[in-house]
Amino acid sequence: EAVNGAFSMPKRKGRAQTQAATQAAREARRRHNDKSGAADAGRVGLDATITVRLSSVGLTLFLLALHALCASALRLPVDLSRRSAISAGTVAALGSALPALAADQRAVVVLGANGGTGLECVNYLVGKGRPCVAATRTGDFVGDSSSSLVSVAKGDVTSRESLSSLITRQTGAVIFAASASRKDGVKQTSNAKAVDRDGLVACAQLCIEQQVPRLVVVSSGGVSKPKSAVYIFLNLAAGGIMDAKISGEDQMRRLYAADGVADSGVGYTVVRPGGLLREPGLGVSALELNQGDTKSGRINRSDVAAICIESLDSAAAFDTTFECYNADSAKGLDDVMGSNAKAVSLGEKTEVSMVVTGFERRADTWPKLFQGLQRDRVV
């Protein structure tokens, strides 16, 4: 009624009044049309944007399915970096077009949960509210199992049968923090070859078979440098443990380099800590990651545990191997044992090595710390 009244002027009004009323009506109509046009244009723009984005996602999903089908049918080789160009492009496209998936809340199996680092891994998982299985050789757990997030189980890494009962399709991740035992009566069967080599390989095989998204391995700094002082000393002191660790690492990497493994979203992360300390963690800002195994230092077990757990959901840490240590303790492999000993026993401050590898990583958040890590290349 208001619109009609505006356009129907009484005949008794004068000419000037009529012209003014007519002009006002024209102005009102123009404003009405402008608003309608703008709304239509907005709707058209929105529809076009949605159409383009849906088309992009549809094309991306089609390419992903086509690539997976071809790879399966033709057994296409996985490139040395373990990621094909189309897979990387697809992931990037999907990441920008679709919402991020919620973090995996399936239980994380911690093998070697009674060890110093394994125990810290369980504690860190509980702190993050993530369910976990504290797996030990005997089935007894020395840590706090009062939380509903913690379940305790027997997990003997020297027994494939024992491992197969733990590593299933329902496993969210596995932390391999087990290592050779030095206890009398046990070290004969739980020696370095049985645990750090054969146990790791069996664990990796099961993780791949059961499609476990991530296997994190706690190894050792200097493990790939057999002529270094660190390697020679630890190898002699612990019954060939460094030989066993590097052999286990290499065999594991070859298993994960098989066709189709990486494309299925199944991968690993190898963490090589420096000298381990039983002190409160210093946090991400105090740490340094490196690659190439030429530098090391010392690090608190709780910080190693944090690195292991935080790397689980990191795409940047997928299929990577890196060293970790406190940034203010960095030394070359031939000097690190002496500097660590002086720092621990005498409280002497470490003169940080000035040698730069170019692979040092430091950051103030966990995601940033892992960014830029180089993927392993398996020959």
Structure description:
This protein is an alpha/beta fold and 379 residues long. It contains eleven helices and twelve strands. The chain has an eight-stranded mixed β-sheet with strand order 3-2-1-4-5-6-11-8, sandwiched between helices. It has a two-stranded parallel ribbon with strand order 7-10. β4 (173-176), α6 and β5 form a beta-alpha-beta unit. The longest helix has 60 residues, at 15-74. The model is unreliable at 1-22 and 35-102 (pLDDT under 50).
Identify the notable features of this structure and list them briefly.
two-stranded parallel sheet, 11 helices, 379 residues, alpha/beta, 44% helix, disordered N terminus
Blueprint (SSEs and pairs):
Layout: H1 2-7, H2 15-74, H3 85-97, E1 108-111, H4 116-127, E2 132-136, E3 150-154, H5 160-164, E4 173-176, H6 192-209, E5 214-218, H7 229-237, H8 241-256, E6 267-273, E7 275-277, E8 287-290, E9 295-296, E10 298-300, H9 301-310, E11 320-326, E12 331-332, H10 336-346, H11 366-370
Parallel strand pairs: 1-2, 1-4, 2-3, 4-5, 5-6, 6-11, 7-10
Antiparallel strand pairs: 8-11, 9-12
